Automatic annotation (TrEMBL):
Residue segments, region Disordered: 1-24
Taxonomic path: Bacteria, Bacillati, Actinomycetota, Actinomycetes, Propionibacteriales
Domain YdhG-like: 23-114
SUPFAM superfamilies per record: YdhG-like (SSF159888)
Record protein name field: DUF1801 domain-containing protein
Cross-referenced InterPro entries: YdhG-like (IPR014922)
UniProt cross-references to Pfam families, sorted A to Z: DUF1801
Biased composition (Basic and acidic residues): 15-24
């Protein structure tokens, strides 16, 4: 891991550590899921949010927000595929959550892998 990647990872971990409980634990769990599901993604801060990109110098593909609700989002920089079916041309791009159970963890991992595959 390069020194830039290490610095960026530290910034993301610090950002999560500054959150109040129980959100801190939830966001840490989501961070762990993202880094395990797509180890090639590099954590970084993107517009003040924990985010994940292909490199330290490329735009973020996935962001985590800690606003009124917790949010996992795919940025416009990710390759979008139309959802098809009843959703037509719409592409799901954001998911809100308050807690993470095993099923939600599995779905987050699927979403993250779909961005990097």
């Amino acid at each position: 891991m390069s020194s830039k990647d290490e610095k960026n990872l530290t910034q993301v971990v610090d950002k999560i550590a500054k959150m109040d409980e129980p959100r801190r634990s939830t966001m840490q769990r989501v961070h762990d899921v993202i880094t395990a599901a797509a180890p090639t993604l590099k954590p970084r801060i993107w517009y003040g949010m924990p985010a994940y990109a292909m490199s330290a110098s490329t735009p973020a593909l996935i962001t985590l927000r800690n606003d009124e609700r917790l949010n996992l989002a795919i940025t416009e920089k990710a390759a979008f595929r139309a959802a098809g079916g009843v959703d037509g041309q719409l592409m799901p791009a954001a998911w809100y959550f308050e807690t993470v159970d095993d099923a939600t963890e599995k779905r987050i991992a699927e979403i993250v892998r779909s961005v990097v595959d």
